[in-house]
Amino acid sequence: MQNPSEEVSSVILQLATTTSPDVQQAAVYKYMTPDVSFEHPVCSVRSSANSREKLLKIYQWYRVLSPHIDLKVESVVLDRENEVMYIEMIQWFKLFFLPINPQPARLVTRLQLRKVLGLYYISRQEDFYHTVDFVRLLLPPLAPIFYILLTFGAIFSFMGSVVAQQLGFWTPRSGEKGIDGEGGHDGDIKLGANGRDPYPGDHTELYD
């Protein structure tokens, strides 16, 4: 890609929604490095000398499971300094054997780019789904149940916090407010010498 911000939407559609397996295969070879890695809630491909072939098979199986996929790119953010892209999308995916209509599922994809001879290639792809969105993607009828469970989780967290603070655990000092007057303490925020996150970059050490 010469201009990732403008081209990535087309690349994603070629990978995920095309009706031609040849177009999909050509996109994998054209836009991904041979050692590309991939992380998804249900599968993972480690970077290796020819890991692109494994990722291609995953994309092909993805289309076998759902012969028709709709996808809408909502936003694209490019961090050119760190060669990272974040793409927010809505996807309509349906397992071919389920007699139901697909439901919209939101995800955020993080792409690590690598610049070679003036062109950008995808060297790592990570897909992130909210719990309810992922259930909506695979088994839509169960999504309301998971939403209720997450709501109960929030109620339990609230009540647990109240009880713990009554016992003296993790209790804010009274009288201190944030800049909006609603609480918090901006003085606790510590930045690096450059005024940014003290741990900038790709955090590749997390994947070792």
What fraction strand? 25-35%
The number of helical segments is 5
Structural class: alpha+beta
Rg computed from alpha carbons, rounded to a whole number of angstroms = 21 Å
End-to-end distance: 28 Å
pLDDT below 50 for ≥5 consecutive residues: which ranges?
none
E-strand count: 6
What does this protein look like?
It is a single chain. The protein has five helices and six strands. Helix 1 runs antiparallel to helix 2. The mean pLDDT is 89. The two termini are 28 Å apart. It has helices at 4-16, 21-31, 51-65, 131-138, 143-166; strands at residues 32-40, 43-45, 70-79, 84-92, 104-116, 119-129. Strands 2-1-6-5-4-3 form a six-stranded mixed sheet. It has 208 residues and is of the alpha+beta class.
Q: What is the secondary structure topology, with strand pairs?
A:
Elements: H1 4-16, H2 21-31, E1 32-40, E2 43-45, H3 51-65, E3 70-79, E4 84-92, E5 104-116, E6 119-129, H4 131-138, H5 143-166
